[in-house]
Amino acid sequence: MHIDHFNISAPAKILTEDKKFLCEVFDLVEGWRPKLSQHGYWLYYKDKVLIHLIESNDHYRNEKQGYLDHIAFRLSGLNKLIKTLKILSTEYSIKYSAERDMTQVFFETPSGVGLEAIFLKENIDE
Q1: 78: domain CATH number?
Q2: Distance between CA atoms of residues 107 and 18, nearest Å
Q3: For 53-68, how does the pLDDT look when each residue is reduced to its tens digit (9 = 90+)?
Q4: Of the four listed, 12, 50, 85, 119, which is most buried by Cβ atoms within 10 Å?
Q5: 3-class secondary structure for 36-63?
Q6: Are the CB atoms for 51 and 57 separated by under 8 Å?
């Protein structure tokens, strides 16, 4: 089994912000999407659709976080990600595990979806 994609459903303005943010942070591109009843976008990493963005006025940001805490991606290019998050004025936190030689970066999309970027054997340039 593997995860096929994850979906964010939000009003159109928020979806546009999330699309721009996700494309800039993860080097994703908007790609082919079938004709569906709701407006939206499919974001691809290389040739694989990874994120579905669906326009919905029935979904809204909760004041309290639900049980799903975050979605994690294993990446390379830690310093590039930090630079991009700074340019986008995105708050983030960093944890380092010496035992695993792993750096974790936690942040949120404009719509509030929690994300984690995992970097093995990469450290932040000082």
Answers
A1: 3.10.180.10
A2: 13
A3: 999 988 767 776 777 7
A4: 119
A5: CCCCEEEEEECCEEEEEEEECCCCCCCC
A6: no
- Backbone torsion region of residue 27, taken as left when φ is above 0, otherwise alpha when ψ lies between -120 and 50, otherwise beta: left
| Tokens, residue 16 | 């546009």
Global pTM value: 0.89
74 close to 120: Cβ distance less than 8 angstroms: yes
77 CA to centre of own chain? 15
The last residue of one of the domains, among 58, 82, 104, is 58
The verdict on residue 64 lying in a domain is no
- Per-residue pLDDT reduced to its tens digit, 84-109: 999 999 999 999 999 999 999 999 99
